[in-house]
Amino acid sequence: MSSSPADLVREFHLAFGLDVRGTPTEVSTTLAAHRGELLAEEAAEVAEVSVDGPLDRLAHELADVVYVAYGTALVHGIDLDAVIAEIHRSNMTKLGPDGRVARRADGKVLKGEHYEAPDVSAVLRRQGWTPGGSA
Ligand SMILES: [Mg+2]
């Protein structure tokens, strides 16, 4: 059994009768809102323990966010691993050809002249998404 988040969360959804879709799909407003609320709750729990911890709580809540995010992607039929790969490809273009990184005063990495924005729409189209299409 793979231990990738996508596979683990799929196992969970299948075991508990939760939605699983294989193609990017616009779901009902009720379901979409429910998934958004679940993720917001977990993100709020991360915020609660981000500064004062303890570290095991932070690790737990971070994992909950990832788990729920993968679940939400699965409900919508999105292959999230492929989307993350595209975000990573784009992020790596922030590195200049000289290998230097431009940073803001707070440490955030800035986009250089070679930056390429992620094309998430293209990734979803490759997964079978029809923008504006109905389920
Ligand atoms: Mg939690």
Task: Characterize this entry briefly.
By secondary structure, the protein is mainly alpha-helical. The protein folds into 2 domains: 1-78, putative ntp pyrophosphohydrolase like domain (putative ntp pyrophosphohydrolase like fold, Orthogonal Bundle), CATH 1.10.3420.10; 80-128, no CATH class. It has 5 helices and no strands.
How would you summarize the topology of this molecule?
Blueprint: H1 5-15, H2 29-49, H3 55-75, H4 80-92, H5 120-126
The protein binds magnesium ion.
Residues 42, 45, 61, 64 line the site of magnesium ion.
Describe this structure in words.
- This protein has 135 residues and is mostly helical.
- It folds into two domains: 78 residues, putative ntp pyrophosphohydrolase like domain (putative ntp pyrophosphohydrolase like fold, Orthogonal Bundle), CATH 1.10.3420; 49 residues, no CATH class.
- Helix content is 54%, strand content 0%.
- It is built from five helices and no strands.
- Helix 1 crosses helix 3.
- The radius of gyration is 18 Å and the shape is globular.
- It starts with a helix and ends in a 9-residue tail after the last helix.
- The model has no long low-confidence stretch (mean pLDDT 93).
- The structure holds magnesium ion.
- Magnesium ion (MG) binds next to helix 2 and helix 3.
- The site of magnesium ion has 4 residues, from helix 2 and helix 3.
